[in-house]
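Quick start: read one record
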Amino acid sequence: MDNGFFKNIEQKTGVRMKDVLELANSLQNANFKDQQTVRDVIKRVAALANKPVPQQLEDQIVQSIVKDGSKLDIQTITDMLNKKDKG
């Protein structure tokens, strides 16, 4: 992908693509059956998105991910964070 595409995303989201790519890279070998690893990822995504995650929501996300740790990706966490905004 060209740099213009990434710059456009950065301008719209306020999130540096370098940070997103570093997070995505760290997810490749992470153990998503480990609660602390999942909590760390949630906190990193929340910081990138500039969205606070209440403890109750964090617990729900952790429980959901640890139950099926093979299906975690950034989109899953982002979707869960966005649900907080809608309800």
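The chain has one domain: 3-86.
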